[in-house]
Recover the amino acids of this structure.
C-alpha cells in the first residue's frame, strides 16, 4: 500500500500537475460536481439513474468505513458484509412494521453494528493483520449462520418491510439524497481523521506496529476504535438499505459480493486516501453494471476476484497512489 | 588439498532496509587473503549490514562485492556456500528444533550428495570440538548460550570454508568462553583462511587482527594495520561512546 | 451414559484425525513460512470435489483419490507459490493477504460456476457400513477416512523429521538466514513446503468429503476449524496439529452428545473467540515474518 514516505515524483505532465494543484483546482470542481448531483436529484425522473447513483453513494460510505481501519490502519477487513448485514437486520427486525421510527431504527442499526464490532474486534485486533483478516471471513460465515437459525430473524424466509407511503420517484429521490448526504458525511469524517492524531496513530500502526507501540501508541485501542467507527457507518447504511429493498434474507444480505466490492473499490481507488473511495466506487460499479448485463453474477464475481489479485500485485497503491507518485515499497528484512 | 585463501573486496556499498533510507553510504572494505580483518565502529554504524551484504542476505542498492576479483554481488546467499564463503550471524542461529548432530549435518548441506565426505567432515568436527560429542543427540535449543555458539561454529566449519564472515562472535557470552572464541578465531586465521570480523569487543578483536577498518554512520572512517591501531584504541572507544 | 461417552470419544478421535490432515497445511505453512494462507479452505473444497469427480467419472474409490490428490495438489501449491506468493514476499504483508483473498474468491466462484451451489455427498460401498465393537459403532467411511488421514499425517511427520530435506525445512523455519548461508535454497524449500501444505489441504478435502456433505461456498467452515486447531495445538509442528485436531474433534463430539445439534456449532465459534483472547500472544509470536 501507500508507504507513507515522500513521493518519488509523479509524471510531470500538465494534467497531472492539475491534479496535484489540489485545493486550487479541486475545490471548485468538487463544488460544481456536488451542485450538479443535487440538481440531478431534484430534477431527474430517470429512476434507474437515481437508483444507480444511490448505490454508488452507498458504496462510497461502505468503502470509507473500510478505509479507516483498512486503508489508514493497514488491517484488511474481508467481512464488511457482516457489519452491513447486522445493520440491515436490526432495522428489519425492529422497524419492519414502522412500530419504531425509521430514524431510531437506523440509529439502533449503527449501534448494533458497533457493538458487534467490539465483540469481534477485542479478541482479534490484538493480533496482527492476517489473523484479523481470517477472522473477518469466519465472522461473516458465522453471522449468516445465526441469521439462518435465530428465532427472531425468520431464517431463510427473510423479513418483509412495510412499503414507504411515497411515489416511486419520491422514494428514489429520498434514498438518493440520504445516501448522498451520508457519503459527504463519511468522506468528511475520513478527511478529518486523516488530519487528526487518531489518523496519525493509525498510519503508525500500518507502517510499523512495533515501533508505534514503543512510541506509546495504544495500538489495540486505536484499531478497535477504527473498526467500531467503520462498523457504525456500515451499520447505518445497512439499516437504510433494508428500507430500500424492503426484503431482507440471509444469503443476499451477507453475500461475499459486498465484502469483495468494498475491498476492490478501496484498493483500486487508493487505500489510505480519503479520495480513494470516491474514485473506486463509481469505477467498480460502472464495470459491474456493464458486466451484469453480459454475464452471470458469479462470472462478475470471478472477474472482480482476478482484478483484485492483479491490482494487488501490480498497482497496490491504487489510482490515488499513482497520482501522488507513491512508489516506495518496504523491503522486508 | 588446501586451496589458497581468497581475497574479499567491497567497493562503494550502499544498502538499506527501507526505501529511501540508506544504512551504508558508499563503503569500501578489503579482507586480505589468509588474514584476519576486523570492522569496528559505534552502534548503528552499519557493520552488521555490511556483513549481511557480503554474505548475500541483503542486495546492495549500489556497489560491488568481489571474491578474488570475481563479481559476486548478485549471487544469492545460498550459492555463496559453494564458493567457500561462510557467515556466522549475530545472536543465536542454531536450529533449535533439531539435535546437535542434525545441526552439524545441515552444515554439510553442500556436501549432501557426497555422503562419505560429509560423514568424514562430521567426525572431524567432533574431534575438533570434543565438547560437542556428549551433546550429540540433545536438541540444540536446550543448550546453554555458550554451547549453542559452539554448535554454530562447528556447523559453519563442516564445509571447510576458506572465507569466513563473523558478526559479534562473543556477544552474550561469559568471559571464559569469550577467551575460547577468540582462540578459535586465531586458529582459523592460522589455518590460512580469510576471516572478516565485526566486533564490539574492540580490545579482543584488535588483539588478533591483522588489519582494521572503522565505520561510522555508514561510511568508512579509518583503516590500518593492527600496529597502527593499538595505541589509538582508548581514544577511539571514548569517541564512539560519545556518538 | 458411559457407552454414549465412549461412542463420543471414539467418534471424536476419528474426527480428530480427519481434522488434523485438514488443518495441517495451514499449520505448516504458517509455522514454517510465516504465511497465513487465507485461501487454505478453498483447497479443501477442491479436494472434496476432486474425490467426487474421480468417483463419478472414473469410478475410483475415494481412498485412491486421497493418494492421487497428493501429487496433484502439491503441483498446484507449488504453482501458486511460484506465481503469487513469491512475488509478494518482499512486499508489505497486506498485499499478500489481498492476493490470497482474491485467489480464494476466484477459486470459490469457479467452483460455484462449475458445480453450482448444490450440496454434494460422496457415497461408496462402505459409506453406510457400520462396524461394531462392543457398545461402540463406527461408520465405515469415517473409519477409512480417519485411517488415511493418520497415514498422511505420519507421512508428513516422517518427511520432516527423518529426511535431510525435511530437516532443512525445519531449519529454515527456525532461522531462515542461517539456513540460507549454509547453502539451503530457501526459495526452493519454501515452494516445497507450500506445495506440501496445499497437498495436505487437498487430501484433507478428500477425507472431509468422505465424512460430510460439501458445497463450494461452505469452505469457510473448515477455515474456522483449521484456525481453531492451530490456536489450540500450536503451529508449525505435525505433533501440535495432531494434538489440536484430536482436541477439537473430541470437543465437537462430546458437545454433540450433550447439547442440541445447532448449539455445537455456536459453541465452537465461541470457543474460537475465547481462545483468541487467551492464546493470542502465542500466535503473535509466530508472525516473525509477516508473509
Amino acid at each position: 500500500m501507500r508507504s507513507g514516505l515522500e513521493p518519488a515524483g509523479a509524471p510531470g505532465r500538465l494534467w497531472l500537475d492539475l491534479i496535484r494543484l489540489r485545493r486550487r483546482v479541486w475545490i471548485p470542481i468538487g463544488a460544481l460536481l456536488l451542485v450538479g448531483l443535487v440538481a440531478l436529484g431534484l430534477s431527474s425522473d430517470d429512476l434507474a439513474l437515481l437508483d444507480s447513483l444511490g448505490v454508488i453513494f452507498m458504496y462510497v460510505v461502505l468503502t470509507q468505513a473500510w478505509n479507516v481501519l483498512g486503508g489508514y490502519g493497514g488491517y484488511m477487513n474481508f467481512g464488511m458484509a457482516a457489519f452491513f448485514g447486522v445493520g440491515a437486520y436490526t432495522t428489519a427486525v425492529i422497524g419492519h412494521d414502522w412500530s419504531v421510527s425509521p430514524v431510531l431504527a437506523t440509529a439502533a442499526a449503527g449501534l448494533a453494528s458497533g457493538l458487534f464490532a467490539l465483540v469481534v474486534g477485542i479478541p482479534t485486533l490484538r493480533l496482527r493483520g492476517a489473523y484479523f483478516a481470517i477472522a473477518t471471513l469466519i465472522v461473516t460465515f458465522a453471522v449468516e449462520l445465526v441469521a439462518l437459525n435465530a428465532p427472531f430473524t425468520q431464517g431463510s424466509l427473510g423479513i418483509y418491510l412495510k412499503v414507504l407511503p411515497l411515489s416511486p420517484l419520491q422514494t428514489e429521490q429520498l434514498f438518493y439524497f440520504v445516501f448522498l448526504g451520508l457519503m459527504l458525511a463519511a468522506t468528511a469524517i475520513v478527511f478529518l481523521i486523516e488530519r487528526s492524531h487518531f489518523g496519525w496513530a493509525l498510519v503508525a500502526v500500518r507502517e510499523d506496529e512495533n515501533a508505534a507501540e514503543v512510541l506509546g501508541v495504544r495500538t489495540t485501542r486505536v484499531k478497535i476504535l477504527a473498526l467500531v467507527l467503520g462498523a457504525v457507518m456500515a451499520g447505518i447504511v445497512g439499516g437504510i438499505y433494508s428500507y430500500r429493498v424492503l426484503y431482507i434474507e440471509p444469503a443476499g444480505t451477507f453475500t461475499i459480493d459486498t465484502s469483495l466490492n468494498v475491498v476492490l473499490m478501496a484498493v483500486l481507488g487508493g487505500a489510505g486516501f480519503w479520495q480513494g473511495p470516491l474514485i473506486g466506487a463509481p469505477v467498480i460499479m460502472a464495470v459491474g453494471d456493464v458486466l451484469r448485463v453480459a454475464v452471470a453474477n458469479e462470472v462478475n464475481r470471478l472477474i472482480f476476484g482476478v482484478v483484485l489479485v492483479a491490482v494487488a500485485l501490480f498497482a497496490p497503491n491504487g489510482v490515488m497512489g499513482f497520482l501522488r507518485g507513491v512508489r516506495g515499497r518496504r523491503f522486508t528484512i | 588439498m588446501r586451496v589458497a585463501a581468497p581475497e574479499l573486496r567491497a567497493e562503494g556499498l550502499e544498502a538499506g532496509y527501507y526505501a529511501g533510507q540508506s544504512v551504508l553510504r558508499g563503503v569500501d572494505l578489503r579482507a586480505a587473503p589468509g588474514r584476519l580483518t576486523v570492522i569496528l565502529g559505534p552502534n548503528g554504524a552499519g557493520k552488521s549490514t555490511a556483513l549481511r551484504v557480503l554474505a548475500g542476505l541483503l542486495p546492495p542498492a549500489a556497489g560491488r562485492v568481489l571474491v578474488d576479483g570475481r563479481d559476486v554481488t548478485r549471487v544469492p546467499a545460498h550459492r555463496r556456500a559453494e564458493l567457500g564463503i561462510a557467515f556466522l550471524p549475530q545472536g543465536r542461529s542454531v536450529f533449535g528444533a533439531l539435535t546437535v548432530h542434525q545441526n552439524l549435518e545441515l552444515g554439510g548441506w553442500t556436501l549432501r550428495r557426497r555422503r562419505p565426505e560429509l560423514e568424514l567432515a562430521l567426525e572431524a568436527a567432533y574431534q575438533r570440538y570434543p565438547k560437542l560429542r556428549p551433546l550429540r543427540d540433545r536438541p540444540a535449543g536446550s543448550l546453554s548460550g555458550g554451547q549453542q555458539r559452539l554448535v554454530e561454529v562447528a556447523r559453519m566449519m563442516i564445509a571447510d570454508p576458506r572465507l569466513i564472515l563473523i558478526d559479534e562472535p562473543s556477544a552474550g557470552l561469559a568471559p571464559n568462553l569469550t577467551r575460547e572464541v577468540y582462540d578459535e578465531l586465531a586458529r582459523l586465521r592460522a589455518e590460512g583462511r580469510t576471516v572478516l570480523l565485526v566486533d564490539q569487543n574492540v580490545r579482543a578483536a584488535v588483539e588478533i587482527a591483522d588489519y582494521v577498518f572503522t565505520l561510522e554512520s555508514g561510511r568508512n572512517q579509518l583503516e590500518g594495520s593492527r600496529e597502527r591501531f593499538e595505541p589509538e584504541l582508548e581514544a577511539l572507544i571514548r569517541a564512539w561512546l560519545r556518538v | 451414559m458411559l457407552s454414549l461417552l465412549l461412542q463420543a470419544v471414539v467418534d471424536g478421535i476419528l474426527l480428530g484425525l480427519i481434522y488434523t490432515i485438514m488443518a495441517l497445511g495451514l499449520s505448516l505453512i504458517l509455522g514454517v513460512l510465516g504465511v497465513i494462507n487465507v485461501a487454505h479452505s478453498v483447497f479443501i473444497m477442491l479436494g472434496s470435489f476432486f474425490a467426487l469427480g474421480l468417483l463419478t467419472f472414473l469410478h475410483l474409490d475415494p481412498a485412491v483419490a486421497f493418494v492421487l490428490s497428493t501429487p496433484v495438489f502439491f503441483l498446484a501449491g507449488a504453482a501458486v507459490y511460484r506465481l503469487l506468493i513469491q512475488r509478494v514476499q518482499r512486499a508489505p504483508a497486506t498485499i499478500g493477504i489481498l492476493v490470497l483473498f482474491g485467489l480464494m474468491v476466484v477459486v470459490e466462484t469457479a467452483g460455484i460456476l462449475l458445480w453450482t451451489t448444490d450440496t454434494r455427498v460422496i457415497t461408496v460401498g462402505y459409506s453406510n457400513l457400520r462396524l461394531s465393537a462392543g457398545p461402540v459403532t463406527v461408520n465405515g467411511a469415517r473409519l477409512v477416512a480417519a485411517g488415511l488421514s493418520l497415514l498422511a499425517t505420519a507421512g508428513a511427520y516422517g518427511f520432516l523429521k527423518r529426511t535431510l530435506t525435511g530437516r532443512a525445512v525445519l531449519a529454515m523455519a527456525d532461522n531462515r538466514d542461517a539456513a540460507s548461508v549454509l547453502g539451503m535454497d530457501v526459495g526452493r524449500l519454501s515452494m516445497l513446503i507450500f506445495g506440501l501444505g496445499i497437498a495436505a489441504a487437498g487430501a484433507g478435502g478428500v477425507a472431509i468429503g468422505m465424512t460430510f456433505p460439501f458445497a463450494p461456498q461452505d469452505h469457510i467452515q473448515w477455515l474456522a476449524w483449521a484456525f481453531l486447531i492451530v490456536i489450540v495445538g500450536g503451529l508449525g509442528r505435525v505433533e501440535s496439529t495432531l494434538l489440536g485436531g484430536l482436541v477439537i474433534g473430541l470437543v465437537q463430539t462430546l458437545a454433540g452428545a450433550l447439547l442440541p445439534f445447532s448449539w455445537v456449532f455456536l459453541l465452537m465459534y465461541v470457543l474460537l473467540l475465547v481462545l483468541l483472547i487467551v492464546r493470542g500472544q502465542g500466535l503473535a509470536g509466530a508472525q516473525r515474518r509477516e508473509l
Summary: Chain C touches chain A through 47 residues (CB under 8 Å). The beta strands of chain C are 130-133, 136-139.
